[in-house]
């Protein structure tokens, strides 16, 4: 009941304010389990997608959203629970992966929709990055549920990273046809199969989104961007210091 109330309140407000366009809604089954595998451009992705669906879709979110102290923390936790997100402890990579798989299997076992971002984190620059095989592929092969590729369009323009207030940009959602991986049943322990399944899904997402594909993980790209920003800052600092030194010498 709480989810329904939150969906009506938040989903209705989002649709009224931003008027998201949608293609491929007919690819979402009316009932039964399915995995929605989406690109990840913005924090708002987990709200726009559920807003346009008639069925509940459950995503996983970092545990910090559910455990922050104080009134604000409690309100945040209530909000994330209300929109159908589950907490996952990401303190250890392996533990986080196992928790995500278990959460996904539990959701699918109830005959519901499970949403997952194969990239593992938001894109730092709007491009599509390599999918991580541990979560999506294992959940798909262990559950036998179909994988439905989803492309979020322009949601990063609605709420750019680091910005609190959204911009009034009309985002879009393209939903592809379900992918059946039953041919790989019982092969969830084969890393080559997991890689193959993940890459097939990412290729479909790329077709739907029109994004440029980058064959590295988004987490690695974020490190590269941070390192480059740090290097430039150090060079600018050094150049400024050198310029001040020349000014001082000229004054003498």
UniProtKB/TrEMBL annotation:
It comes from the Bacteria. Residues 34-155 form the Phospholipid/glycerol acyltransferase domain. GO terms for molecular function: acyltransferase activity. Keywords: Acyltransferase, Transferase. It holds the Pfam family Acyltransferase. SMART domains: PlsC. Residues 229-239 have a biased composition (Basic and acidic residues). Residues 229-252 are annotated as: Disordered. This is Lysophospholipid acyltransferase family protein. It comes from Streptomyces aureoversilis.
């Amino acid at each position: 009941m709480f989810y329904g109330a939150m969906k009506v309140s938040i989903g209705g407000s989002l649709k009224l304010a931003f008027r998201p366009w949608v293609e491929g809604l007919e690819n979402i089954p009316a009932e039964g389990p399915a995995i929605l595998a989406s690109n990840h451009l913005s924090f708002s992705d987990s709200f726009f997608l559920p807003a346009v669906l008639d069925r509940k879709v459950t995503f996983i979110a970092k545990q910090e959203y559910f455990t922050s102290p104080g009134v604000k923390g409690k309100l945040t936790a209530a909000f994330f629970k209300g929109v159908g997100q589950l907490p996952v402890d990401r303190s250890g990579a392996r533990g986080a992966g196992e928790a995500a798989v278990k959460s996904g299997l539990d959701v699918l076992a109830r005959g519901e929709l499970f949403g997952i971002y194969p990239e593992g984190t938001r894109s730092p620059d709007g491009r599509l990055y390599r999918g991580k095989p541990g979560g999506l592929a294992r959940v798909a092969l262990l559950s036998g549920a179909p994988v439905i590729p989803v492309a979020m369009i322009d949601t990063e323009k609605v709420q750019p990273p680091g910005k609190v207030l959204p911009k009034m940009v009309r985002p879009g959602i393209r939903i592809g046809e379900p992918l059946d991986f039953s041919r790989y049943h019982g092969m969830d322990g084969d890393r080559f199969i997991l890689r193959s399944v993940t890459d097939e899904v990412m290729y479909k997402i790329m077709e739907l989104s029109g994004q440029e594909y980058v064959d590295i993980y988004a987490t690695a790209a974020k490190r590269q961007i941070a390192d480059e920003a740090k290097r430039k800052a150090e060079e600018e600092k050094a150049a400024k210091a050198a310029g001040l030194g020349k000014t001082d010498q000229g004054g003498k």
